[in-house]
Design goal:
Order of helices and strands: HHHHEHHHHHEHHHHHHHHHH
CATH architecture of the domain at 179-386: Orthogonal Bundle
Structural class: mainly alpha
CATH superfamily of the domain at 179-386: MetI-like
Radius of gyration: 24 Å
Largest sheet: 2 strands, antiparallel
Shape: globular
Strand order of the largest sheet: 1-2
Length: 390
């Protein structure tokens, strides 16, 4: 059992968290959103999971969707491969655990290493074959995903309303909205989590250093932070993205993550600095200094673990803010760029006539509401559970 599990504080915090219905609802919402994002190629795909001919099953069976897993036909190769690799790794780890294989940790590490190979060896190939037509016009049989359309596939008339063929309708060029909504969850989660992680690393490092060293260093750093804080965050995001676009720098999800992360660390810096100042004169920190432990080890190994609860709470609220920021940038045309799926881009397509194109307003709006509410409920539940005074 880990030290955290044996710690009465964490045991009581977990007990309080589980009793909070809103917190549990928030975690459930995040889990469902993450499951949809990870399993996207298995839920919505224009390529069949398996395809064969009855007269020669063993000679003709194929799995067209596999190439989409290892070499996705998407402008955002890095993010797509990350999610696909995570999906396969989770499946492999679950299989090893269920089969009760010996040396499970070693087997999991071996599986994680082996799974990396096809992601580097399989070459990207644009396959324009309409497998639905192939199945209709030949003796072939196929098993399709529940939504048999890809996120980039124009499969119907533009702005078609929801129906049996397209559950949530189609967008401005006839792409399935349900497919693009599910892949849009990948964009929102990737930007939300990675941008907030980047902001957390920068904010925690600056706040720790300012609170630990104090004096002229703290004074200089915090005055610079306050200058940056004078600029409204979203306006600063727009200015940076517009400037990068004017310089013809390729707009990508990685760029959006960097820009949001590099502008979202200010609030966390103040939080971490304040918590560090509280810990700075406590006996365990003073004894570490007397023992000659290097400053960076005191900050990273002793102070940081003791101020982690408020950082963790701030992280969950920060993810919700980053998801909203990405959607706002995409809505204005400065965020995730087409043809990559994004909830903000779907909302932008309904801008000209939101009443007639109601399905492009309602469903992405509900998805954003779901994601932001889930992270906020989780953050509020953590705040209540980790508050020692409560």
């Amino acid at each position: 059992m880990s030290n955290a599990a044996r710690n009465p504080f964490f045991t009581q915090a977990w007990s309080k968290f589980r009793r909070d219905r809103f917190a549990v609802a928030g975690v459930t919402g995040i889990a469902l959103l993450l499951a949809l994002a990870l399993a996207a190629p298995l839920i919505t795909n224009g390529k069949p999971l398996a395809m064969w001919y009855d007269h020669d099953f063993f000679g003709t069976v194929s799995f067209p969707f596999l190439r989409e897993i290892f070499a996705p036909d998407s402008p955002e190769q890095t993010i797509e491969r990350f999610f696909n690799y995570s999906l396969l790794l989770i499946a492999a780890a679950a299989a090893i655990r269920l089969l009760r294989l010996p040396k499970r940790r070693l087997m999991t590490v071996a599986a994680a290493t082996a799974l990396l190979v096809p992601f580097f060896t399989v070459e990207r190939h644009v396959d324009k074959t309409d497998y639905r037509v192939v199945v209709r016009e030949t003796a072939a049989k196929a098993v399709f995903t529940p939504i048999p359309y890809g996120p980039f596939e124009a499969a119907a008339s533009p702005y078609s309303p929801p129906g049996a063929a397209h559950w949530l309708g189609t967008d401005s060029i006839g792409r399935d909205v349900a497919s693009r909504m599910i892949y849009g969850a990948r964009a929102s989660l990737a930007v939300g989590v990675f941008a907030t992680l980047l902001a957390l690393v920068i904010g925690a490092a600056v706040g720790l250093a300012a609170g630990f060293y104090r004096g002229w260093f703290d004074l200089t750093v915090m005055r610079l932070v306050e200058i940056i804080m004078c600029f409204p965050t979203f306006l600063l995001l727009l200015i940076l993205m517009a400037a990068l676009k004017d310089r013809e720098i390729e707009q990508s999800m990685i760029l959006v993550i960097l820009v949001i992360g590099l502008t979202g660390w200010i609030g966390l810096t103040f939080l971490v600095r304040g918590e560090t100042l509280k810990q700075r004169n406590m006996a365990y920190v003073l004894s570490c200094e007397v023992s000659g432990i290097p400053s960076w080890r005191i900050m990273a190994g002793h102070i940081l673990p003791n101020i982690m609860p408020p950082i963790l709470i701030s992280f969950t609220f920060g993810v919700a803010g980053a998801i909203l920021a990405e959607s706002g940038l995409s809505f204005l045309g400065f965020g995730v760029q087409p043809p990559t799926a994004s909830w903000g881009d779907l909302l932008r397509q309904a801008f000209d006539n939101p009443m007639n194109y109601w399905h492009l307003t309602l469903f992405p709006g509900l998805a954003l509401f779901w994601a932001v509410l889930a992270f906020n409920f989780t953050g509020e539940g953590l705040r209540k559970a980790l508050d020692a005074k409560a």
